[in-house]
Amino acid sequence: MNEKEIKIISKFLSLILRHNPEKINLTLDENGWVDVEELIKKANKKVRFSMEELEHVVATNNKKRFSFNDDKTKIRANQGHSLKNINLEFENTSPPDFLYHGTVAKFMDAIRETGLQKMSRQHVHLSKDLETSIKVGSRRGKPIILSVRAGDMYKKGYEFYCSANGVWLTDAVPSEFIDFKNE
Ligand code: HQG
Fold first, then answer.
1. Residues linked to residue 47 through DSSP beta bridges, in sequence order
2. Is residue 169 part of a domain?
3. Are residues 114 and 53 located together in one domain of the fold?
């Protein structure tokens, strides 16, 4: 498999495991898992891959987007779902004092007004390092990096989760906890 083929499979997995399993007539269980054999079989009409190729995509994915269960009979996306009612069994965890969010200028008025909202995802996504947040923001244009006083939020009772691939998640960030000085 070359990089291009790996990317096609990875994008397809994101679509199926986060957003639209019905596209290939699959349903995720309540914790977001699907049976690997069934996935490979049902994906076949759209994107063809073997178990070995799937293992390769999971292992090399730049953001560790997917995980197998222990015996590799099931697979799920680690975060990023737009599907509702998927319980990824996150545990409320104390975050670093500061987390970062990369965005772009056109959203700033709304963010000032309503804070960070989860929009179409299940959570607001935050990064522990600036570099990652710059990459996330750059997907949409010239990045603006906001720092979030996550430690203060946690002390006030807001919940934080760290996904299997190290993305910090929370329900919403009120603007009082956002440091706007970096824009
Ligand atoms: C913005 C990718 C208006 C927010 C990335 C962002 C990340 C608001 C956009 C992961 C807003 C939502 C997540 C408000 C936030 N009003 N706009 N109140 N609050 N926004 O893609 O954080 O490749 O859902 O700033 O690398 O950009 O999918 O979130 O620009 O890790 O694995 O609304 O997605 O990873 O966009 O990215 P997204 P995100 P994957």
1. none
2. yes
3. no
Q: Helices 36-43 and 51-60 meet at what angle, rounded to 10?
A: 100
- Please give the residue range of the domain that contains residue 126: 99-179
Write out pLDDT tens, residues 58-116. 999 989 999 999 999 999 999 999 999 999 999 999 999 999 999 999 999 999 999 99
pLDDT tens-digit map of 142-172: 999 999 999 999 999 999 999 989 999 999 9
**Closest by Cα among 79, 125, 134 to 104:** 134
Atom of ligand 1 at shortest range from CA of 104:
30
Separation CA 132–CA 137 (nearest Å): 9
- Residues lining ligand 1, Cβ inside 6 A: 63, 65, 80, 103, 107, 110-111, 114, 116-117, 119-121, 125, 136, 140, 167
Place of tokens 């970062």: 100
Whether residues 107 and 165 fall in one domain: yes
The pTM of the full predicted model, rounded to 2 decimals, is: 0.88
| Domains identified in the chain, total number | 2
CA 90 – CA 79 distance, rounded (Å): 10
CATH code assigned at 120:
3.20.170.30
